Amino acid sequence: MKKEYEIPVKKNQELEVEIIDLTHEGLGVAKIAHYPLFIENALPTEIVKVHVLKVGKKFGYAKVLDYIKTSKDRVEGANNQLIRTGIAPLQHLTYPAQLIFKRNQIVNVLAKTAKLPEVSVLSTIGMEQPYGYRNKAQIPVRKVNGELETGFFKKNSHELVPMTDFYIQDPKIDEAIVIVRNILRKFNVKPYDEVEHTGNIRNIIVRRGHYSHEMMIILVTRTEKIFKNEQITSEIVKALPEVFSVIHNIQPAKSNAILGKESRVLFGKDSFRDELLGHTFQISPQSFYQVNTEMAEKLYQIAIDFADLKPEDIAIDAYCGIGTIGQSFAKKVKHVYGVEIVKEAIQDAKINANLNDIENATYEVGSAENVMHDWVKDGIKPSVVFVDPPRKGLTDSFIRATAEVQPEKVIYISCNAATFARDVKLFDELGYKTEKVQPVDLFPQTYHVELVALLQRVK
Ligand code: SAH
Fold this sequence. Notes:
Layout: E1 14-18, E2 21-22, E3 28-32, E4 35-39, E5 47-55, E6 60-69, H1 80-85, H2 95-112, E7 120-121, E8 136-144, E9 147-153, E10 160-162, H3 171-186, E11 201-208, E12 215-221, H4 229-239, E13 243-250, E14 262-268, E15 272-276, E16 279-283, H5 293-307, E17 314-318, H6 324-329, E18 335-340, H7 343-355, E19 361-365, H8 368-377, E20 384-387, H9 396-404, E21 409-414, H10 417-429, E22 432-439, E23 451-457
Parallel strand pairs: 4-6, 7-22, 12-13, 17-18, 17-20, 18-19, 20-21
Antiparallel strand pairs: 1-5, 2-3, 3-4, 5-6, 8-9, 8-11, 9-10, 11-12, 13-14, 15-16, 21-23, 22-23
Helix pairs in contact: 2-10, 3-4, 8-9
The protein binds S-adenosyl-L-homocysteine.
Residues 288-290, 319-321, 324-325, 339-342, 345, 367-368, 388, 390 line the site of S-adenosyl-L-homocysteine (SAH).
């Protein structure tokens, strides 16, 4: 009989360990007789005394009691709350080391998942000021110690930690949250109670155009009734002159989804605008817009440079959102076809094409895989295909349909190195070589990786 594997540590045990690695979520890894322990706020090369919190079959969790030797890459005085809430889980790692960490994630998955260790991965492009960058905040509202509070949930919990300085958000957004919070308090609005499913105000969402400074405030409530909405709205508009739009969204569900289906405008427009690479974009509440405008411009510019576009090119902008990528280069090519699953985003894309005097762009609502098949059937022959999918990446069927029409180049923008590696493996099998990968840091202080890759058809 096979001897049962004995886990070498016990819950509540205290021991001294050396950190040998970082997980892709930025947790320190120590191994005790091959058994991994994951440890928050611990960096490779550090020697720490830990308390074992949880012991699972394959791995466990521990927390640091004491640092015996610290890393040269450690930032002294990092904010524990920001690490613990997951707002800035890498804040304890110096910024240059964060950039190396992100490149390594990609190098590792290309070797292990894609079996393409030879692909060239360039150094991560970082920000000069790697904080205060987020143009969007989604802040939960709850009652804490009898008072309406705004803040952030503790990691893996729904316990609200009241907070006013979110560090990675546009400071103007942080200010707006406090102002709106105080107005809600003044009018005695009832915060949502998740356990009882009572109370009303669930979230405050603030979006602010990086260049335009147009601000959109979304108040998400459980019920249709919104308290003294006229007074509240007029106080918000008075206190925040940048406010361009106030929206009331109703989310009656007991789910984690932040936005509900129903929205109405309380003030101004039902969208706001911003600029990217000199073009104007309208953005509706339901539409995706990159949260780091400064770095999104760098990312898109690299994508465009990688594509080396020519006037006769026919380009597909798959997962196009409000049309940002395609419209940034539309004037350089013959035609752009965009596809996106969110109806409101396609409405924005069409309006944006008008705002930017673009006449050679066509947009379809639908899933990229279905619409790609339709385009292939209709005889559309793209020479370049841009893809920018969500974290789950592309589907087999989308990749095969793309390879079938034989574009010269595929420009893959990814926010998830693991699914990216899985997808380029299939592209490789279908005759598309990954020439180079450029990581761009859109999410400083977090473990999120963003990259753009050039895939070239092998003749
Ligand atoms: N390229 C845009 C949006 C990228 S985010 C930008 O840079 O702003 C990914 C987009 O894919 C989102 O807008 C999301 O709504 C959309 N999406 C998600 N699943 C999709 C699918 N199956 N088909 C088409 N679009 C999808």
